[in-house]
Amino acid sequence: MVYTFELIKHANIRYRDSLCLLAQFELSVMLQSISVEAEIIAETIGGAQFLTFESRELSEDELSYLSGHSAIVFMASRQGLLLNPLSVPSPSYLSEDLPEVLKYKGKTSVTFTRMMINVALSLSSCQPEEKTRLLFDPLCGKGTTCFCALTAGMNAVGLDVNRKEIKEASDYFSRYLKFHKLKHTVSERSETVGKETVPLTEFTFANTKERFHQGDSRHLTLACADSGFSFSLFRRHSANLLVADFPYGVQHAASAGSRPEPLQVFLHRILPAWKSSLSAGGIAALSFNSLTLPSSVVRKEFRQAGFILPDQEIFDHLAHHVEQAVVRDVVFALNPKEV
């Protein structure tokens, strides 16, 4: 059977060509995760961009899974030039406005963030389907990646050294839950790590009152600390996915009042803590500006920290222009299972 999926028309004209390439990559990985090998063709139909492929007939569950693709807005089966629209239930747990509404300078594209999550999820083999996965963003800023995870029905933990941004993320999510009249609880506590006190805000919620009262809830934890404290947040339950957008500058301030660290030094320092926070079989996905931190350096640091990188060539060609001073690349890495 031939399937064709329409892609969103991204507002950034320079990014549209990159979006198509990334969307092909994402769809390829998602198809492989459901044991479908197919050649994906990008084409234009009626002025809109589509991805088309031929495969066995896909089940309703498989189509629902693929409908979670970051850039797909319309799905159809195809006979010649005739498109037969597919009615596919949305896989979203919360409304898709959650990661979109909060605007701020330097915010990573929600479409790109969802692509990283989908690919990491497709590559991960660390947890059975019936359990709720846990995503960790150790550089969460104002929470876009965590909010994307919650929308997809996962639990999320966000960590950032910037207390103001953590508070903005927490305040925004609190307002969101109240606006949508979602049953929830909020608690604040702190953990002592060495000589440091790490403040945490924890949300427990569900997308319906019935699920909340039945204990079928989801969780968001936001914490303010240096990324090197990642391991302290996962003493009981490790994360299944680690998804982060690395600082795009030349240096990174490790904590308030401290000297900025060169990006490679910072990455080398925090990768062991990130690895300790991940389950065996979990996937880390890290995007970064390859003009300030070369892709070869990032891959080398991940390997030295004990991660395994995919050997398919397609994973080595994901760099794309975002703006004049940013050529963004992304690395996916497996935390290997113990022998």
Kindly describe this structure:
Helices cover 30% and strands 31% of the residues. The chain is of the alpha+beta class. The chain has two domains: 2-85, THUMP domain-like (Alpha-Beta Plaits), CATH 3.30.70.1510; 98-334, Vaccinia Virus protein VP39 (Rossmann fold, 3-Layer(aba) Sandwich). The strands form three sheets. It has a nine-stranded mixed beta sheet, sandwiched between helices. It has a five-stranded antiparallel beta sheet with strand order 2-3-1-4-5, covered by helices on one side. The protein has a two-stranded antiparallel sheet with strand order 12-13. Strand 4 and strand 5 (82-85) form a beta hairpin. Helix 4 (110-123) packs across helix 5 (144-151). The radius of gyration is 20 Å and the shape is globular. The N and C termini lie far apart (41 Å).
What features would you highlight for this structure?
339 residues; alpha+beta; Alpha-Beta Plaits; Rossmann fold; 2 domains; 9-stranded mixed beta sheet; 9 helices; 16 strands; 30% helix; globular
* Architecture (CATH level 2) name of the largest domain: 3-Layer(aba) Sandwich
**Molecular shape:** globular
Distance linking N and C termini: 41 Å
**What about the largest sheet?**
9 strands, mixed
Low-confidence stretches: none
Provide the number of structural domains.
2
The SSE string, one letter per element, is EHEEHEEHHEHEHEEHEEEEHEHEE
Give the helix tally. Answer: 9
Strand order of the largest sheet: 8-9-10-7-6-11-14-16-15
Q: Please report which band the strand proportion falls in: under 5%, 5-15%, 15-25%, 25-35%, 35-45% or over 45%.
A: 25-35%
Rounded to the nearest angstrom, the radius of gyration is 20 Å
What do we call the CATH homologous superfamily of the largest domain?
Answer: Vaccinia Virus protein VP39
Q: Look at the structure and give the mean pLDDT.
A: 90
Top CATH class of the largest domain: Alpha Beta
- Bin the helical content: 25-40%
What is the fold-level CATH name, i.e. the topology of the largest domain? Rossmann fold
Q: What structural class results from the helix and strand content?
A: alpha+beta
Kindly state the number of beta strands.
16
